[in-house]
Amino acid sequence: MKARPNQRLSSQAMAFVLAGGRGSRLKELTDRRAKPAVYFGGKTRIIDFALSNAVNSGIRKMAIATQYKAHSLIRHMQRGWNFFRAERNEYLDILPASQRVDETKWYLGTADAVTQNIDIVDSYGVKYIIILAGDHIYKMDYEIMLMQHAATGADVTIGCLTVPKEEASAFGVMHVDSTGRITDFLEKPAVPPTIPGDPANSLASMGIYVFDWAFLRDLLIRDAEDPNSSHDFGNDIIPQIVKHGKAMAHRFAESCVTSGLEDEPYWRDVGTIDAFWQANIDLTEFVPKLDLYDNSWPIWTYAELVPPAKFIHDEDGRRGSAISSLISGDCIVSGSEVRNSLLFTGGRTHSYAALDHVVALPYVDVGRYADLSRCVIDRGVRIPEKLVVGQDPVEDAKWFRCSEGGIVLITQDMLDARARALG
């Protein structure tokens, strides 16, 4: 693509979103859906954050590679992300692993997911490609990262988080020189290298990579022919460039989008039950760490046509109320008390029920006199009358999934098994 004067780099780029992972640490929440399709924040899905960042950054060409239990994700894309118009040179392709290259080959790794779709990326006619993970929560202007990539002449520019040294062992860590050039890439090192001039912190990979497409295309073709490669960006492609080419680090703080209310750059991997619960509950704080109310950087999603939330009954012990909570459309809080909780679309809470620090996914129905705290409830679950969760860890563990942090995950299958056992 030949650039025009004053043309934004994002208009010459495409976003390739890797959304095929299961997210097994989310346990039963990913039994029916891939991790990027898991609900978050009242009305969105996890993948909406990466896609919204791309749209808000000016990128109008996207591809989403799917693999594990992709139907829920594909349906969400079709319903919520169908506003791209080819006549405006806008495209969004959904790329399931479909044996396009070989009848026996699914996507073998993150790099292979791009390799198998080289012809589709070629058809976009782009100069740059941004590889994104579809399973993190953050707001970021990719145009700023593209500008750094072009200015430094890097072979790859890698988005990096600044994390305390003692936490860095959970990530791929960058060793950089004073110019930001990456001199070593270490996967989950026991002794992480620190940032020059900042011995308390390390640079961890966000799984966001910017390449010139022509450069990456050649590299992927060579990698596909290497029988010793696992065909993965983190394991194969990135270490090779660090060793033989020019890899530059881009610090998230330089392109993180804030409304002025956030006190630090916000990025979360909600890949465990504890992290998922905490990130959702954080949104109920008086000043949340992530501002979802910033209309200058909207999080796009499928906007369901539903009626407003409703609160009914007003008598002692039976008052429909919600304190420090997010209540989505089509919820009816009927004579029950909701505190520090998040109810997704279509929730119902019936008289005398109490919810405290609860994350209830869409269309959850909470029966009368139920008393729930510190739990995550999967979509469509019907909580029986008088169920108590969150007070007796031993009793909770008999029927439900209990996390290391003491969060209880409730699914309909678990409740059905409990009902059978109790007769």
Automatic annotation (TrEMBL):
A Pfam family matched in the record: NTP_transferase
Record GO terms (molecular function): ATP binding; glucose-1-phosphate adenylyltransferase activity
Binding site for alpha-D-glucose 1-phosphate: Y107, G172, E187, K188, S205
Keyword Transferase recorded: yes
Domain Nucleotidyl transferase, first and last residues per copy: 15-284
EC number: 2.7.7.27
InterPro entries xref list: ADP-Glc_PPase (IPR011831), ADP_Glu_pyroP_CS (IPR005836), GlgC_bac (IPR023049), GlmU/GlgC-like_hexapep (IPR056818), NTP_transferase_dom (IPR005835), Nucleotide-diphossugar_trans (IPR029044), Trimer_LpxA-like_sf (IPR011004)
This protein's pathway: Glycan biosynthesis; glycogen biosynthesis
Catalytic activity: alpha-D-glucose 1-phosphate + ATP + H(+) = ADP-alpha-D-glucose + diphosphate
GO biological process: glycogen biosynthetic process
Residue ranges of domain Glucose-1-phosphate adenylyltransferase/Bifunctional protein GlmU-like C-terminal hexapeptide in the record: 307-410
Entry keywords, A to Z: ATP-binding, Carbohydrate metabolism, Glycogen biosynthesis, Glycogen metabolism, Nucleotide-binding, Nucleotidyltransferase, Transferase
Enzyme class label: transferase
Gene3D superfamilies documented for this protein: Hexapeptide repeat proteins (2.160.10.10), Spore Coat Polysaccharide Biosynthesis Protein SpsA, Chain A (3.90.550.10)
Site keyed Could play a key role in the communication between the regulatory and the substrate sites: positions: Q67, W106
Role: Involved in the biosynthesis of ADP-glucose, a building block required for the elongation reactions to produce glycogen. Catalyzes the reaction between ATP and alpha-D-glucose 1-phosphate (G1P) to produce pyrophosphate and ADP-Glc.
Family of this protein: Belongs to the bacterial/plant glucose-1-phosphate adenylyltransferase family.
PANTHER family reported for this sequence: GLUCOSE-1-PHOSPHATE ADENYLYLTRANSFERASE, GLUCOSE-1-PHOSPHATE ADENYLYLTRANSFERASE-RELATED
Subunit annotation: Homotetramer.
Identification of the protein by name: Glucose-1-phosphate adenylyltransferase
Provenance organism: Gemmobacter aquatilis
Lineage of origin: Bacteria, Pseudomonadati, Pseudomonadota, Alphaproteobacteria, Rhodobacterales
